[in-house]
Amino acid sequence: MSAVQKKVLKKRQTEVAQVVEPVAAPVATPVSAPETHESTIPSSRVSNYVSGVKLNKEFDDQIEKVKAEGWQSVPLSDEDKAAVEAKVAGAVDKNKAIQAQLDDITAGKDIGTILSDDDKIKVGEAIKSLEEKGSSPIDIREISKNLLSKRMVTHDTATIDVISKKRSKFSKDSFNVLASFGDILVNEITKYTFERLAEVGNSTIEPKYVFSSKISEGPLYGYYSQLPAFKEAAAAAAEPSKKKSKREEVTEQEPEEQTEAQPQSDDKEINFKFYVKSIVYQQKKTNETYANAKVSERYQKFCSDIVLNMLDDMVDLSQIILQVMSTKTISAKLFKAAIFTKTYNLEGHDAVVKSLD
Q1: Are 274 and 259 in contact (CB under 8 A)?
Q2: ω before 137 within 30° of 0 (cis)?
Q3: Which long-range contacts (CB under 8 A, 24 or more apart) does 32-39 make?
Q4: What is the model's pLDDT at position 250?
Q5: Integer Cα distance of 99 and 116 in angstroms
Q6: Beta partners for residue 209, in sequence order
Q7: In contact, 187 and 283? CB cutoff 8 Å
Q8: Using CA atoms, how far apart are residues 345 and 352, in angstroms rounded to an integer?
Q9: Residue 204, SS3?
Q10: How far is 191 from 213, CA to CA, in rounded Å?
Q11: What's the rounded Cα separation, in Å, for the pair 198 and 288?
Q12: What is the pLDDT of residue 322?
């Protein structure tokens, strides 16, 4: 090995040594939607619908568009444009400092004198990750430049920041409340439907038995009977019955056993059918009369739509309540306030309060 090669190798070893070896940190447990309530409907699925579909989808789509096409690809209000320009103007000195670091790295200066201790740890973590993946070659300078470049404030990053601040924020346990209330509604509807099923001697639970049951005696009937899915199904059940074709009779047969990982092929939107079926099967175990009962696809969809309607309703009411509160974070307390408001004059109100508190 020549003297020049030895010098280059020694310099590389010195640079790598100056990147502090990261201390393995404990794996953080996600706190976005912990399952503190013992509900069959998971709060994570509720979160996906409420946050990802109802409230934040528009902002998330805009952010992805900025990343793909640049900040001018999304419509911004004059106020937002001013905020973006202010962020860019306010970061001039910061950007200059970062650019100076990038120039020093490109010029071949000692990385150990350029990076802060925290950045050395981050670069070390990146190198370790690449080594574990078997990546080669590993360029410590490129890794360092990528780390620093991400901190540059551009019109794109400023726009993403402005849009991100509009996203609704939630406390860690807020979705548990809605998931538990969804369980309560499906359980009540299923209880009365099972009773009617036993009376008529049928073995498949269908929406039509909901409306020929004593469902109006349900403690929370005054709430869910006003939801669009309930009204629509009630209207359909009230129509004169028609003689079923062979094709229609076949569709009433019990569908193949589903798992959460194997949804129906037409399930393109978020739904709760899998969990409705789980709730029905849990109730089957409480009474031998229901032991052989099956649950139809129509009933799963009906109850799933009830849950979706409830989520829409609670989100809309929570937004109204939020307007008169000082906080901008949607909490479990806020969702409880919405639920308690909707059920206040109902027989089942106290039971709901006891269950959710």
Answers
A1: yes
A2: yes
A3: 32/170, 32/172, 33/172, 33/175, 33/176, 34/172, 34/173, 34/176, 35/176, 36/173, 36/176, 37/176, 37/177, 37/179, 37/180, 37/356, 39/176, 39/179, 39/180, 39/182, 39/183
A4: 39
A5: 15
A6: none
A7: yes
A8: 12
A9: strand
A10: 10
A11: 11
A12: 78
Which superfamily is assigned to 174-239+251-356 in CATH?
Histone, subunit A (1.10.20.10)
> So what's the pLDDT on residue 35?
38
CA nearest to 353, candidates 208, 180, 205, 232: 180
139: amino acid identity, one letter? D
**Token pair listed for 179:** 């998931």
Backbone angles phi, psi at 44, to 5 degrees: -65, -35
H or E element in which residue 94 lies = helix 92-106
Token pair listed for 51: 């946050």
Q: Which residue stretches of the chain have pLDDT < 50?
A: 2, 4-9, 11-13, 16-17, 19-37, 245-267
CA distance 308 to 44: 14
User: For the purposes of burial, counting CB atoms within 10 Å of the CB of 306, is it exposed (0-12), middle (13-18) or buried (19 or more)?
Assistant: buried
Q: The whole model's pTM is what?
A: 0.74
What is the residue whose two structure tokens read 């906080």? 327
Residue 292: per-residue pLDDT: 85
| HSE value, Cβ hemisphere, 13 Å, CA-based, for 220 | 28
Quick check: 279 and 295 in contact, CB under 8 A? no
Q: What is the pLDDT of residue 14?
A: 53
Predicted pLDDT of residue 193: 94
Looking at residue 23, what is its pLDDT? 43
Say what the pLDDT of residue 20 is: 45
Which residues, 6+ apart, have CB-to-CB distance to 121 below 8 Å?
19, 20, 22
pLDDT for position 326:
67
The C-alpha angle 202, 194, 268, rounded to 5 degrees, equals 95
- Please give the Cα distance from 158 to 162 (Å, whole number): 6
Q: Within 13 Å, how many C-alpha atoms sit on residue 283's CB side?
A: 22
Instruction: Return the amino acid letter for 78.
Output: D
Per-domain boundaries in the chain? 77-167, 174-239+251-356
